Amino acid sequence: MGTRKKVHAFVRVKPTDDFAHEMIKYGDDNKTIDIHLKKDTRRGVVNNQQTDWSFKLDGVLHDASQDLVYETVAKDVVSQALNGYNGTIMCYGQTGAGKTYTMMGATENYKHRGILPRALQQVFKMIEECPTQAITVRVSYLEIYNESLFDLLSTLPYVGSLVTPMTIVESPQGVFIKGLSVHLTSQEEDAFSLLFEGETNRIIASHTMNKNSSRSHCIFTIYVEAHSRTLSDEKYITSKINLVDLAGSERLGKSGSEGRVLKEATYINKSLSFLEQAIIALGDQKRDHIPFRQCKLTHALKDSLGGNCNMVLVTNIYGEATQLEETLSSLRFASRMKLVTTEPAINEKYDAERMVKNLEKELALLKQELAIHDSLANRTLVNYDPMDEIQIAEINSQVRRYLEGTLDEIDIINLRQIQEVFNQFRVVLSQQEQEVESTLRRKYTLIDKNDFAAISAVQKAGLVDVDGHLVGEPDGQGFGLGVAPFSTRPGKKSKSKKMFKEQLSSLARKEGASSPASGKDLDASTSKTQLTPSSKDGDVKDMLLQDQETSSIEPLASESPQQELCPPRPSTPPAKPVAFEDFKNERGSEINRIFKENKSILNERRKRASETTQRINAIKREIDMTKEALNFQKSLREKQGKGEYEKKGLMIIDEEEFLLILKLKDLKKQYRTEYQDLQDLRAEIQYCQHLVDQCRHRLLTEFDIWYNESFFVPEDLQAALKPGGSIRPGMMPLSRIVSLGEDDQDRFSRLQQTMLPEGPDSVSFYNAKVKTEQKHNYLKTMMGLQQTHRK
């Protein structure tokens, strides 16, 4: 943590024509202000009324310009913020004393701007002077109105509306406002726009002492984060500057507030009273508890009041005799604030990503240095990388041969090998334990000493006596040792043996079901973990090494294609037919391919339509011939006298005429089918023709753009037309691209910067002011139009 330092307190006196020279006097050091009151003769002869006060402060600003105020009060705090120190500048005083003018100034005049705009300018100017650091700036604007929190920048279109109200949250990193929007600003003009946007949303009211009285406390915060452009530096610093414009305290008898303004004044005086209580508690070294949570104002400023922060207070007072009581109250607050101490410290943090990269780089350098030491000590075969499967198998083989006695010692190369050797000893020991247990389970039934049920069953079978000694029993290869039971007789079969075998078999089944390592499972696990004999280990290792060498010898494919060199531009543009052929083979190849495909489909549909038309014509001719044949048959039938039967409703036709009728019917059916196919083909042809026309138009348009940009646009503008450039091909006409020099707007901006009375530094201030006014005028106009339409 940093060293403790006291809060700096300054007094700014509001200029007035009716200044009380007899009552207010300044010291020669310009740091002392003396107040003298005449005794009230109405109190009689015995009058112990105090008449003289003297206040020692860090500076008295009387008839001081805005430039002098900023240089004296805020410049050091802002400059230290870019070094990682938090800062807070607070304006305090009675209503109408000039707090908002000191903090914000007059936005209509650049020279009369206050502490807040000047602080923004200083931050961005210092960023330009620090090319070795990447500094980001963010801002937020909080309003505390009637003990409620409001975001003054919530009216911006990209700020979403909050469902839940904002709250003050404490964390190990400090106090922050949950739900308050924080905005990134990359340039000075953007910061001014946010400032003016918030100012237009502030709540103000009018009373007898101030026509534009602020009815809320406002905290404008500048967040600074500075990263070093050197990749090896993982540390970065963060800081914040709180610029606090407090609402003024007021005597209700003098201000004459009523209604809503009276309610606002009550909340303002209450919060300022809690602020003074917190300041008194901070100044008392014997106090353990500081009442920060009494109101939203003190809670939000907990870090600034006596915390990790450079604190500066500007007390605004009147110089008139009628306001002397309020002036004394404000000066008492300033003197109490000077007793408060803070403990500013640099806020350093570490970039985790950069830290990992630096550690990886350091690890690579240490490996290189270790390789150099190994080469100087003739240890060229040392490898410090993690071991692969082949090396682990080799160490396992060495450990097994060492345990078998075929290897006298294991050569130690590095620490990784030592750790792996001990690990392989553990692996071999575990495998041997499993092998021994598996062998015992194949020959014997193992019983747990704590399994009393199994022990009692064995005792009943006669295998173990009461004292726990084993009873001898032949196992097929010899005789077991033990004490024979009393019931056993030579040459006779014992019933107990038969019972024991049955119980033993059931016990074995029970134990085999309960033990996961018994029976076949144990054998399988043993066979899986068992290694091959040592004679085969060398062959396996050689095969793996051979595969590894073979894979390492394979050539690697080139990952990055060679960059194509752009041909030089010819001195004179080529003929358009020649250039068109080049365009179709290069840049317009895809469009040309689509055009050809669509055209081939169109030709194929036209060919099918032609064939269908020919078939329809042939069917039509055949229908006509069939109709003529039918008419001939009909006339022949009438000549034969068969027409009289038709008059009676009887139809007499011969077989030939009947076949002609059936043929005509089939021909008409074919005609209708072919005609429907022809209609479908004509619709497809129309659609394909539309696609071909579109492709042709696109191909010609792209060719014109390519031809103009390739042979007429200056070479210094070609970079902007490349893929990823700022200008998309065809987005601007050729005449506009060629004349991309300084236009009227650029010339006007240059003249504006050079001809403004305050100099180029005021451009961003005025631009932000004009944009904010235009925006709000537009919103007012639209609201007026909507109301007119509603009426």
UniProtKB/TrEMBL annotation:
The keyword ATP-binding applies. Residues 349-376, 602-629 form a coiled coil. Residues 477-574 are annotated as: Disordered. It is found in: Cytoplasm, Cytoskeleton, Flagellum axoneme. GO terms for biological process: microtubule-based movement. SUPFAM superfamilies: P-loop containing nucleoside triphosphate hydrolases (SSF52540). Residues 524-535, 547-563 have a biased composition (Polar residues). Belongs to the TRAFAC class myosin-kinesin ATPase superfamily. Kinesin family. Interacts with HYDIN. This is Kinesin-like protein. It comes from Physeter macrocephalus. The lineage of its organism: Eukaryota, Metazoa, Chordata, Craniata, Vertebrata. The gene is KIF9.
